[in-house]
Amino acid sequence: MKKLITLLLMLVMLPAAAFAEIFFIEDESQLPEGWTEKPLLRITAIDTDRSDAMLIQCGGENMMIDGGSVQFYPRLEELFDAEGITEFKYLLNTHPDNDHLQGLTKMMNHRILAEDGKTDLGPKYQIGGFCSAVKKDYKNTSYHKAAVRAVDKYGIPYVQVYHGDVLTLGGATINIIRCDESWGTNARSACTQIVFGDSKVLLMGDCDSRPQKYFLKNVDHSLLECDILKAVHHGINGFEEMFLEVAQPEFIFIPNFKAHKSIKNGTKRKFAEYNALYSGDGTVVMETDGTDWYIWQLPNWTKKK
Question: How far is CA 67 from CA 39, 55, 147, 212, 232, in A?
């Protein structure tokens, strides 16, 4: 009996598992005092209509996960200018579709011109590496071939990412999760679990139900756990119930408009069970100190005059 009591006391004294808590605010003015003095991870889902473009910032380092369709590139540039961002450790393309890749290619090609409009003064953005889920000589899309031309022209390192690879950004760890079945580029998207302290985000690319089932069967479930989850394929595809049970997100963001016809009613109902925001209705900003999350949404993007 004494041994049993001792064991129970020891279990009670063990620290409980830590989970990040989420707070929704109207804007940055509502962040708690001293917040910006802490080490932080910020994820910005940029308002690029129905396309993926996410800026990740941590420890003074920046990266992009996808870059949206090219027509929305001014929205990226405006954000980078406002933040004073000129360097990116990585550009990561989850898969080579135009609505994920074109903005990244534009970033690599963006040059600063002299007043004469002709003299090349160099790249607007210093880019440490271009990461992709597909091999460099992948020829199935013109979008990927355009990205490779930019990589080769400006000497940007090309890195193909595989399941189990780990990237770092400041104090954040980025775990690459991939399905290698021959189900098309959407299914083979480079998914990322971003970990900072006790905070976790899972960005799912365009992985539909088949790779979700694959992950449940073949991937350590701890890699699927998250506080925040990016919807699959702009909300067009939903999530497997078991996948959501394993991931246990508290918040889902969807790169699309809330009322867009491409979002199926069944998916809308599924999202209704969670706190959810649509980045197509306005850029969504998510920031954590590794313990708490603060989330707010900016007004829908309008072109500056």
Answer: 25, 9, 12, 23, 16
Query: Is residue 303 in a domain?
Result: no
User: Which residues touch 162 (CB under 8 Å, ≥6 apart)?
Assistant: 176, 178
Q: Which residue has the higher pLDDT, 123 or 9?
A: 123
**What pLDDT was estimated at residue 302?**
78
Task: Write the pLDDT tens digit of every residue in 38-47.
Answer: 999 999 999 9
CATH number, domain at 153? 3.60.15.10
In angstroms, the CA 68 to CA 57 distance is 18
Residue from 260, 248, 199 nearest 18 by CA: 199
| pLDDT higher than threshold 50 for residue 259 | yes
3-state helix, strand, coil in the chain (%, to 5): 30, 30, 40
Q: Is residue 6 part of a domain?
A: no
User: 303 pLDDT exceeds 90?
Assistant: no
Torsion angle, alpha carbons of 24, 257, 125, 108, to 10: 150
Pairing mode, if any, of strands 53-58 and 120-123? unpaired
Query: pLDDT-derived band of residue 274, with 50, 70 and 90 as boundaries?
Result: confident
Flag whether 4 is in a domain: no
Q: Coil, strand or helix: which one is 164?
A: coil
Half-sphere exposure of 13 (CA within 13 A, CB side): 6
Q: How far apart are CA 295 and CA 267, in angstroms?
A: 22
216 has pLDDT over 70:
yes
| CA-CA-CA-CA torsion sign (82, 87, 92, 93) | positive
What is the reported pLDDT for 227? 97
Distance, in Å, from the CA atom of 126 to the CA atom of 300, rounded to the nearest integer, reads 28
148 phi/psi in degrees, rounded to 5: -65, -40
Mean pLDDT of the chain: 91
Count of domains in the chain? 1
Which residues is 65 bridged to in the sheet? 54, 92
Contact 252, 258 (CB under 8 A): no
